[in-house]
Batch of 3 targets.
Target 1
Amino acid sequence: MSELVELTEPQLVARALDGDRDAWGALIARHDHRVVLSLLARGIAIGPARELAHQTWIRLIDRQRAGRLARLELPGLAVRQAAFLALDAARGARPEVLSLDQAEDDAAFIDPDASIEDRLIRREELERAQAELERCSPLARRLFALVYANPGMSHAEAARQAGLSVQRVRQTLCEVRARLRVAIETQGRR
């Protein structure tokens, strides 16, 4: 797996599309954090967000194994899949996803080589990010969710959809990202 760290994104994607389990693991390790953050931005609690992210990766891997995944653009595809699963769960199609507690440690699936300490640190970072995101205004959370659910979306398109100026969208996103960065980097000072 250490050789995979040096591979470029397109190389990892090609190997994952060929069914390389280690390549999938490396891609998940690179992009899972963003998928979870996109779910947190939708107002989903950390435990259910992790479960939805976990289900997202399983669904993508299953599609690849069934030969129904011709392209793999990450993190966009995973973020969209997670959003779909979240909407599906919110509609009641899979209510058990939203009621799961944190019994299962998704970090073990994402990075089986991670130590218990690394998993705990990651969990704490995500919990701090979620708490900080919840302290943001509803507008800031909505913009953050919009942009992270659509990774290729321009600020101009986000502004159009939100009915705001491009400058306001940029300023809001910059503020949210700064707050999340500080929250993630803070070592339990709150």
Note: Confidence is low (pLDDT under 50) at residues 93-110.
Target 2
Amino acid sequence: MNTGKDVTRDERTEAVMRAASALAMSVIIFGLLIDIMFRAAVFHEAAWDLFALLVLDGAIITVYMARHKVLGQMLGRRPTIGMAVGALVGALLGAALAAVFTMMAHL
């Protein structure tokens, strides 16, 4: 029976849609990471364009969550600081390893 009214979405529908979106995003992100590793191992090429897509995706998600004031609610202050410090340490370690490998390649 059709009453002609639009069905509004309830909380369960919203939760299922968010979970499906998160799963789809995870598949895309891990697919890109696997593609990057494959290119590096088989073709010996750096896939910086794909790395840029991953970083851009993370930045968009983080900014969106921060603008809607849910980033702090999800993580809390201490884990957010820990993630920032971890990202900084990872960037410094990556730069150091890149410098070491570049020097070794020139020997």
Note: The helical segments are 11-43, 48-67, 71-75, 77-105.
Target 3
Amino acid sequence: MNHRLDGLCEEIYMIRSFQGADARARVAELEVEIESIKSAALQHGIEFHPQKGPRSAYIGAEQPPSAMTLIDGCTSRTPLLGATYHRLLSGVSHAKRHGLARFLVPVGPPDEEGSIPTALNTSAGDLARDLLAGPLCAATLVEHLRWYPRWDVDAVSPLVVRMLHAWGRISGAPYPGPEISHATG
């Protein structure tokens, strides 16, 4: 239910700034759904914590882990690696200066409108290292599908290993193994 609340709150946070009647109506629909979850939680004696700015509403005594914490959990062999990737990716996805400036380099003087021509200042290896969190999360998801819902992922596991080898070859950080996923007993 916390995942549902997170999705509802993210949608509200995203569209609340729009001024149209459709946006206001959609926010009202989402708020009704959140109110329904709140009511059900309280009927069952579960705490409800409302949305505060960009922080989503949640139920229960403890706030669910952040995206940064979850990504860091996917790279647990190297503490804080996931958190670092989250910051790098967040800087790009949120168009923050530090995230985007790393990719561009000026290649000439400003034109008549004041725009400075730029070129992409990166390589396939740099991008593969910067975006390593993607394949790590995908690989972790496959392993979790094996042990949590007990799905048969044997057909997918070799593809995950091939993906990690290819990513490692491009990034210059070879995949350390294992070659085949461990089957659960």
Note: Residues 181-185 have pLDDT under 50 and may be disordered.
